[in-house]
């Protein structure tokens, strides 16, 4: 599998990239059944989400998006939502926007589902935190375009590789914010729970997580924004959606298409940011602090 060459200290050359590529290809070929299962699962989840978002008439979906905005925040956000999504439809980017939204929701949902347990584990164990931290540093400093290469090797071109690359790129803030939020919970409150005989699991579920929820939601917001920022890059490995529109505008020097695709991405980002922020404000600890103030 690995090539063996003599090493000259006066003319150093380490084939690190070749060896990593050999390792990744060996893993993919050895565990092809696992990768096929992951690909089928991700494609199934994406197809289901895309069908839910794209099948209804766009006016129905705008009404649903506005109702969600009104329910979590206010009628003002609902009005902004109607105007924003109607603009997306008016510039003929509705189908591409729903494709992008489906991909972002699947990728961000899986990134959150993976990052929160890891963050809790890191908050509970200093050794896990020390092991995870350099990995997160590596994941956050690596140029996101590089993630597309192993994604193509493992899953080929298409939406699956884009989702996997997005998950890897978007996970670190979720882990960091969750660990920070758990560690910042007042130790005296935790000690009081222990004094009353609560188990560690019950303390986590009923004390630490509720108190840490605003910070955890801030991390989830960052995960979603990073996932949305990947939509243009994933277009380079065959994912459709608004990213493909922006990429096409670059290759064809089509300014109007680039503006329309970029504007639709911004509208989606604002909507998701405001909705997630509103959900964070509805956390019991935030409402209690408002009553106290």
TrEMBL record:
Q: Main location per UniProt?
A: membrane
Localized where? Cell membrane; Membrane
State the Pfam families in the record. BPD_transp_1 (PF00528)
Chain ranges of the ABC transmembrane type-1 domain: 97-276
One term of GO molecular function? carnitine transmembrane transporter activity
Q: Name one GO cellular component term.
A: ATP-binding cassette (ABC) transporter complex
Q: Does the keyword Protein transport apply?
A: no
- Annotated membrane topology: Multi-pass membrane protein
- Cite the Gene3D superfamilies for this sequence: MetI-like (1.10.3720.10)
Q: Which UniProt keywords apply?
A: Cell membrane, Membrane, Transmembrane, Transmembrane helix, Transport
Which GO biological process categories is it annotated with? Answer: choline transport; glycine betaine transport
Q: Which residues cross the membrane?
A: 55-72, 77-95, 101-123, 144-170, 223-243, 255-272
* PANTHER family (UniProt xref): GLYCINE BETAINE/PROLINE BETAINE TRANSPORT SYSTEM PERMEASE PROTEIN PROW, GLYCINE BETAINE_PROLINE BETAINE TRANSPORT SYSTEM PERMEASE PROTEIN PROW
* Family to which the UniProt record says this protein belongs: Belongs to the binding-protein-dependent transport system permease family.
Q: What's the protein name?
A: ABC transporter permease subunit
Give the source species. Phytoactinopolyspora mesophila
